[in-house]
## 1
Amino acid sequence: MPKTVQEIAATMKMLRNHHVVTERDRDFEALLVDLLEVDEHGQLTHEPIRVTAGTETHGIALIEGSGGGKTTAILKVLQGCEPLQNNPETGAPRYLHVKVESPATLRSLGSQVLRKLGVDTVSDRAKVYDIWAMVRHRLAVMGISVLWLDEAHDMFKSATSLETDNMFKMLKSLMQGDHPVILVLSGTERLDWITSFDAQVNRRFSKLRPQELQFGVDNMPLKELIEFYARKAGLEAAIDEDTVVRLIHGGRHRFGRCVRTLVAAIKCALQDGSNELRQEHFEIAWGREEGCEIVQNVFAAADWQSIELKDENDELYERQRAAQDPKSKKKAGVV
């Protein structure tokens, strides 16, 4: 019997709320734990470990392409870290999540962090230095141990601008002083390339780069995940390995993108009144997401492996990088 609109909506919400723990989650959790102090009883605390003679903290940079699932993974780990859950003095967590708004400047980012810390209005006459002094003060007052800047690649316009140099100085200042915080940065490949330009910033961060899904190695685990999600939705997964490898390709080899397409395909199957999840449902869901012609749909085309899939933002960035870097110009054939 076909599900009602309300039942389909409830199923979709249930599937979207289900989080699959991956190696990335475990690796990030291990890095986070290594940056927190333990008490005399060996229990993890919210206090950051201070290095360099107790003068500064370290941070984590999680670097992955768009749609990989890094935001969800970090959020779940932070929510599951007991010492960071509640500051009895504020009733709020000891971590702060800020999604960087683009385009970002030191002023706009500082004001954004302050809003998250309860300061709604910043004077237009306030100097950037004063804004960030207030940020550090509020982080201390609120007892924040971990500051997470999501989409952190948007903090950097280029690798050579004065604004970028000042961003680097700001990052270092947050990890120093009387109340240094553990800084977590998450973003695309651009984040790795730009932060590597400043040796002092680079050495302060442990880099985590989740592995992309690979044909063959990840076929069976992904097929089992499809079957699991289908069962939760009350469907039989009528798919084979061909569907799985097409999903890996269509998802740009990123776990998060593959799961998003899977959930969308299940919705198509439910709306179709089917009791099976078939490849045609993936074809419909992926086609809607990509807005492509049928000949460019990886779930429909016979020669699907020849279909090149680009990430527009990363592609634009690489072109800009090639235009600035003489070595990249030479490799790319740019004169």
## 2
Amino acid sequence: MNLLYALPPAESRLPMKSVFHGFSSAQPDFAGKLAEFLGADACVLANSARTLLYFILMDLKNKARSEQNQVLIPGYTCYSVAAATVRAGLKVALYDLDPSNFQPDMADVQRKISGRTLAIVGQHLLGVPSDIQGLTGLARDHGIHCIEDAAQSLDLFGSGSKLKMHAHFTLLSFGRGKPLPLGQGGALISGNGADHAWIVRAIKALPCKNGSSFIPFAMQIFSRPCFYWSLEKLPLGLGRTVYDPFFTVMAMSRAYQRMGEYALDELGRLNRHRSNLGKIYCQNFTKQDEGNNARETPAHVRYPVLVAQQDRVRELAHYGVRRLYPQALCDLTVLKPELADPGVNTPGARQISRQLITFPTHLGVSDRLARKISDMAAEIFGDVSIVKY
């Protein structure tokens, strides 16, 4: 294997016309175009999804009873979800997941809801569709809110179909490696009669920089395999998952909004490619023929599988094969003081953290290369379990 070669684990490139549009001085309307694209009533933008989650939680906190100081979140999720909760002055409560399909353990969710619960967060981990409708039903039964974390999925509702929202709030992310990888930004999509007026006012009061398209331009070059290895050698924290409750809270830069307007046209092609590679990985790992495996595959931003041991994952690092978040939240030492129950145990989430590895689905991976990667993975790891949905 050429040591001066490395595939990125997820998509980070955009059409150059999108990047060049970021350099223009045009007034962006990314929020309007995104709402129209999704068939949503309205859309609120900020520099990240965690900024928007922070404002949602602050809004709910200001309207809630004083004892409602806990947010119930998945035991295995992006650390930013916990960070936004802590920044809002709330405690983190954890519910468990089924490691075979990443679905919420509804019995555990039911047990964890109490008079102190302010909201429940559901997620579509790596694009695996989750039972948000079920979580929202439980939330409504207890008079609380459900927040849908769709940061890793922008293809749950079918290409060209209108957005079907179940949660009170839905969050999208446009960071590197996300479904629409602008490199920055997040969106809050309105639905179910949720009142976002306070959040809209709060976001409008934030500073908004015009920003620069230089970094996205550079990423178009350095995300190529012949250069990407060099980025990983630099101390940039590339690919690291960091718990940081002191994150920057800003509006979304106008340059990134302008890029987003043009990049939306690319989303269909990205998702079709992701879905096609997902089918290839699934067929190879299940050893089934194409006819027996013709079901539709979600557009995974990275294709997830479970292996008995992750120790040898570095042998495929040059091919974009990676772990995801290194620990379940119950094992994250820095988060312990912020947990509603510091002794909480989420065994399903722990199993995911120990066994989950991901395969690249971006445009830099051909069908042939996907088959080669999955063949090597089967040889290295032995039994590979696909995630059911």
## 3
Amino acid sequence: MQNNKEVILKVEHLCQYFKMGPTYELKAVDDFNIELGKGEVFGLVGESGCGKTTTGRTIIKLYDATSGNVYYKGQRIVAGIRSYKDKIKSEKKRVEDEIEKLREEEKLGDSGAKEKIKTLKHELSKEIAAQKENIKLAKIDQKKCDKIYSAKLVSQLKAELKEKREQTSNQEEIEKLEKDYALKIQIAKKERLVNEIQMIFQDPIASLDPRMTVREIIAEGLIIKGIKDKEYIDERVCEALEKVGLVREHANRYPHEFSGGQRQRIGVARSVIMNPSVIIADEPVSALDVSIQAQVINLLNEVRNELGLTIMFIAHDLSVIKYFSDRIGVMYFGKLVELATSDELFAHPLHPYTRSLLSAIPLPDPVYEKKRKRIVYNPIAEHDYSKEQPSMREITEGHFIMCNTEEFNKYKKQLEAEKK
């Protein structure tokens, strides 16, 4: 599931399970894998409740992942430990079963059984030690990646300051350098790696504090970073407002004084003021009128091109997704079932669920609407996984689908027939 661009965000076997009582777990996200290239817009689509928002919130660490990893620019920022614990349990069970068989063989006179048991126990202890080390490293990356990142930034800034000091003998310049770098180092100490990833929330009013002015809302991230210069903060807030099509005078107003589209623009400004590399846009236009949707989408496009942002665009409106995204992933019940470029997915949808979603898109054409037939997706009727479980497979370059071998061959023939 790679693309040709530099990979900036890699999600690997991400799982997010929620306990629903003493014995039942809801698998909101189950084995989710994706790689996002620099400057790419990746659309994640699916019906309500399929796990799209949970995926975004887990990536940005609003939820602790059950298992799996998220890497930002090669550094692990999210690490779940369930898979390592499960591996220990499964290995223990396997070894116990094998030892029980070997003990039966020993009773029947097998002289080599005792040595085999000893070897199995030794291998088990090595495997358990390895998995415990994985758990330890995962906990360090999950909890301390921000400290490691800030320490790295501070070290780099101190090295820069030392190098520049050595290059000048003017005392005034040295004092100015030290003053400038003291502020940079102070900010770097409070820098967090996850600040590089920002989120635009679905509801433009619920995500804005009604007791805070627009200036306070947008500037909150800068203040948390340790910036105290009021003039600098005001200037950055005004820049962010103008970038999203608002004016400086809006800074002293409250969220209830704005329309839905303007509130969403404030949400975008709050995200871009932190100079992120990745934005997770969680259905940013679903609560807006069609004309306002177009304005917000065009705004995101402008901001993306200006700042070189990578965007994960979460939505259930396929028309919006097609217009805005480079690649599209289709999600069903916590799993990614199909992934392809925007043009490829709309031209050659293969998974029955993708076809069902596309058949639900209404068009402003009364004649077409009278003839349009909805495709109903029934996973029990469509798939038989009793013999072989499905996995994500590449059917053509860049086009992946969740299927088993039998389905893969069927989809391959179907795709060849469509392209003739």
